[in-house]
Structure formats: structure tokens, C-alpha cells
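re: ur question from earlier - yeah i can do the single chain one, its not a big deal. heres the input i used so u can compare w yours
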Amino acid sequence: MPVTVTEKADSRPAADGDSPSRELKYVIRGTDSETVALTSLAAAAPAAYEGLTRKTWKVDPVGDPTDSQTWDGVVTYGLVSLKPKETGDWTFSFDTSGGTQHITQSIRNIANHSLPGTVPPDFKGAIGVTQDSVEGVDIDAAGPFNFTITAYLAAGSMTGQWLAQVYALRAKTPVNDDTFSLNVDGVQISFAAGEVRFIDFSGSKRRVGDWELQFKFSALPNRRGFSVGDITNIDKEGWQYMWVRYQDKDDSSAKQIVKRPTSVHIEEVYPKGDFSIFGIPG
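and the output i got, formated as C-alpha cells:
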């Protein structure tokens, strides 16, 4: 007698939420072998159902367990469990959440208008110029490239000396003093010196005995050869601070005194640090 597997009328109960699940119910006939019944059920039930993965399948004899040719079968479906992170693994996540930025200079002046018979003053891109100051404007701006690296370090690799070095570096919130490279599953990501700032560091010991460590960074691009007004060939590293000094100048065309950028100043506000101590794959 061939083995048959037939779905039952009361099959397909479902549950949704954080742990969605589905059940398919079957009746298996034509064998008194539990192994054959299980194998036949697995062959008949789909490997996936409504976006969920087959998790378990079981059979129960109908009637006398020692002399049954009929079995009830139940196949359950659910979400695939993520493989736990192992010692030596590491993960990479990022975001570029934006905000606002206050600027006093435009990228480019587009147009100037004034009363008929007069010439509008040329402020060389300065924004919101008043008699006494340059007020500037708040604009929407992309945030820094914030990224987090989570590493799983073997217990024997964690030493007090290494922890003290990382903490001392964190206390300075430094920027990288050399190229900082990451290899994310074959995708090479590199940052030039001065672009990455070390933001935070945290860790905890896992039940398996190793350490879960999180390193948080933030990156801003370096800028080379840009201009502010008539001042050209300016270089600025990502985390250096730039400010502009304005002075009153005579605009002979407009026949009035205007404020114009006369000097640009680049300041180092975060010290440089050696990021190689992290041991992050590059």
C-alpha cells in the first residue's frame, strides 16, 4: 500500500505579531514506521509558507501506537533565527541622519537687485549682511557619516593595558592621524587622515565567555582647494573648525561700505590619535 499524505480540513492556523507562525496539518496513511511517516511528511510539506520557513514537523500515531497505519502530522513555520555571533565576528552599521548648519557664506552668489539707477553691493557671497554684522542662515544639512563597529573579542585578548589605551584615546575624542580603512565583506571603505572622529566605546562580557565591544565613529569629508569670497586655495580637514573674518570695504561700484570676507581661519579643535590600536580589519 503506498504512503499518502493529505492536508486536513482544520489545517493552517496562524499567528502574527513579533513571532509570526503558521501550521499545516496532515494525515499520513499506509505505514507503521514513524521514520517513514516523518520522511513522507517532510517531502509533502512545502519548505516555506507565506514568507515563513519550515521549522519543525512531527507525527503522532492514530489508534494503537504498536500497530498503526495512520498518523497525524503537524508542520510549523516561523521566522528564521539569526545565527548567534561568534568570537572573532564583527558587524558594521551606519546612518547619516541630518540636521541644520549655520553658514555665513553661500556656495555661489546668483543675483543681486537694487533700486533703479543704483548698483547693488557685492558682498562676495556673505549672507545676511547688516550694518554691523554678517548674520548668516541656518540650512538643512546631511549629518556626518556615523558608523558603529561591533566586535566579538576572545576573553584572552582583552587585557587591562589594551582597555586603558582605548579609554585614554576615547578621552580625547580624537580624529584619525592616518588613513583609516575598513573591509566590510569585501567592500573597502577608506577615510583619509582627519576625517574620522572616535566618539564612544562600550562593552560587555557575554555568557559564552568572550566580549562584545562597540566602537562608535563619525566621519566628515576633507575639503581641498575651495574658496570663500576672493580668498582661494583653502584646505580644511573634516573635523577642523573654520571661521571667517569680515571687514568693512569700500564698494566703489555701489558707492557704499560693505562687509566682505577678508580672512579665513582653520583651527584644530580635536587632537590626532592612532586608530590602529582597535585592531579592526582593514
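The chain has a mean pLDDT of 87. not sure if urs matches, ping me
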